[in-house]
């Protein structure tokens, strides 16, 4: 997966940290997680990824979808929002600690290892496409087919920190909602050779080859 913010270069400077996140919700089970990707402006391959599992509200059973948004609905108030205590007044690296998956449990990895192609460059004069790359490795044998052939509900957000130690941030773009389709993966077959040298019928092979989920999410800001 890559998250890209296309924005004017004069709005950022080297050393600042661009933090981008996408919250993914299963349309039926409502199981929800957020994948956050950080990158340091001006430093190549500085990608880092965090994964957050969203709990359900104890009273209503509803999944808490806003755990990484800058603002969240105020409790028992119909209209106003309040600053999210999971992310405000703290460094991005320690936000929402109660929701963050441990390194041992996280199956997402930051970097471009399985990126099919680099994200497109900006076509807007004075802009640059700032892209953070991460991927989820999937074994061909043992993957969960129920995760595919589904259109997920997603929410994407972008924040900019002055540096890795900053506890305040600018919201580069308001969180936006969309859908994301993960197509069903093709069946894996393997052709083997029988004792007579002929081709045996295809069957499932015990390959350890890794597949990766890789989609691109894109937003842009242009100075008019």
Give a quick set of tags describing it.
224 residues, mainly beta, 5-stranded antiparallel sheet, 39% strand
Written overview of the protein:
With 224 residues, the chain is an all-beta fold. The chain has one domain. 0% of the residues lie in helices and 39% in strands. The protein has strands spanning 2-8, 17-25, 32-40, 48-53, 71-73, 81-83, 108-110, 127-139, 150-161, 170-182, 210-213, 216-220. Strands 1, 7, 8, 11 and 12 form a 5-stranded mixed sheet that branches. A 5-stranded antiparallel sheet has the order 4-3-2-9-10, with no helix packed on it. A hairpin with an 8-residue loop joins strand 9 and strand 10 (170-182). The radius of gyration is 20 Å and the shape is globular. The chain starts with a strand and ends with a strand. 21% of the residues are buried.
